[in-house]
Amino acid sequence: MSIEIEKSVLEKACMEMIETILLCLPNAFKGTIYRIGKPPELIAERITSGIISDGREEISWGLPSKSEYNPPGKPWIEYRDQPGRPLEAMSWCVGKQKSWTAEDPRNDDRSVRLQVEGIREDFYHMEPVVVRKSDLKLDMYSSLKYPRDYKGDIIWKESKYVVVAVIKIHFHPFTVKIGTHETRVIKKLSRSLGTELLSYQLGQDSMKTMQSLAKDRLNACNILADSLRNAITKSGFIFSLVKQEIGYLRDQWEQVLLEDRKEKNMKVEAIKDLSSILMSMGEGSEDLREDLVAIQKKFLGLSLPPEKGENWVIMQIERRWKDLLYKCQQDDHKRRMIWQAIDKLKKSLNFGQDPDIIANYDKMPEELKWEWVDLIYGNNDRFNAPALERIIKILGNPAINIPSRERSMKTLAQLKALAETMNKLEQSSNFLLRQVLNGGDNRLFSEILNNITKNSKQKNESFMD
User: Fold this and answer.
1) Are 98 and 241 members of one domain?
2) What's the structural domain count of the chain?
3) d(C-alpha 74, C-alpha 452), whole Å
4) N or C: at which end does the chain have fewer Cβ atoms within 10 angstroms?
């Protein structure tokens, strides 16, 4: 079993996802989504491709005239890794359930055209869309066979997930790298697409059991399911993207302060100190050491507000150091060095809002400077539209001298518009849900359904304008 929904519905979901990614990532210009069919064939079929115009106002849709992945698609046995033929990024994404980033096409091991024709491909990122086997009820089908790699090993055997689609986003030259902001955005959106496709699948399955219901009731439930699906699946990742973008702004702000003070990044230096101490501790507890190195490296890539950042340090880094020191005893001097480095790491989290540091920064008007700091370091546990609107307005001021000012302003403005649309859609859906559960009359249903459909269409057209 795999995601098996109507072609038109699938295309619509894929087009919406590509549109969202291209609007959120200014350095992206093309997107393609492939459906991965059921095991063991795992046919990779190109569903749709979209290219955004230079003015970023229109998206052209369609499939290339020639491609091995155009319908009816290409089965796993033809694109898996195998001696004697070029390696494909599709094979990596499907077989390993991991992403692939071509940050340097000249040295891309999985550039098929480079291997076959000597022509380098463009810069792109491919991300698998995964769904839990349990959500697809694959455990119910004991006869289901998973494919094998060329060595004969069964893929996905130990994984909790199956790959149902692959997203490929093309970028302008030298604007994408492994593990950057762009790749993290695509990864988050891939999870949302998996949830959306699964909800379509579950909705389609539910429809088969509801055919005896009255036409108006069934119509009401279908539109309600569509409204709730959009509101639930999109509201969460929109808020997540807002938090991530504000975290990125904090990083940019702190870098500006560091450059102004001609200082090194205290967070980076603290991690270097801890890594150096790890190297000097001799042998023993290699698993704990490797885990600690990985978690410290991961922390460098996070953009957390100070309070959450400190909790993260305590729970993820400090706890691991305590476990390591319990198993690998060290002298008092080295232990002091460790805790001093961890204290330094915690202190670094407040660098961007340190009153003395901010007071000494004279490249911005005083009132604007303090408001900016309060906004980007404020509590962001819930969506705050007025605060977000204020951040967008401040980003329009050239006095905010950070590299990503204009890009972040456009991105946050688009996310705010999407969030407001989803909020209104959710309110309408909740009202309709109460009416359905309470057995409201059919005439009221018709009026509500017509209003939801009309308003959703108008909001989508307004957003595109």
Assistant:
1) no
2) 2
3) 40
4) C
Structural domain including 222 reads 210-465
- Can you give the pLDDT at residue 340? 93
If we measure between CA atoms, which residue out of 30, 163, 166, 15 comes closest to residue 88? Answer: 166
Backbone angles phi, psi at 318, to 5 degrees: -60, -40
- Where helices occur in 262-330 by DSSP H, the ranges are 266-279, 286-300, 306-312, 319-327
Q: Three-state SS for 144?
A: coil
Burial (CB count within 10 angstroms: exposed 0-12, middle 13-18, buried 19+), residue 443: exposed
**Structural domain contains residue 191:** no
- Rounded to whole angstroms, the maximal C-alpha distance in the chain is 79
Same domain, 173 and 228: no
Q: What are the pLDDT digits (tens) for 219-257?
A: 655 665 665 566 556 666 777 888 888 888 999 888 989
Instruction: Give start and end residues of each alpha helix (H) in 286-404.
Output: 286-300, 306-312, 319-327, 332-348, 355-360, 366-376, 385-395
pLDDT attached to residue 463: 38
User: What angle in degrees, to the nearest 10, is found between the helix axes of 215-261 and 405-437?
Assistant: 150
Extract the residue ranges of the chain whose pLDDT is less than 70.
Answer: 1-5, 113-120, 137-143, 198-236, 380-381, 422, 425-465
What is the reported pLDDT for 212?
Answer: 46
Q: What is the pLDDT of residue 235?
A: 64
Q: Is 281 exposed, middle or buried (0-12, 13-18, 19+ CB in 10 A)?
A: middle
Model confidence, pTM: 0.52
Whether residues 109 and 30 share a domain: the answer is: yes
The tokens describing 121, both together, are 């491909």
Is the residue at 136 inside a domain?
A: yes
Enter the tokens of residue 161: 């997930």
CATH number where 152 lies: 3.30.450
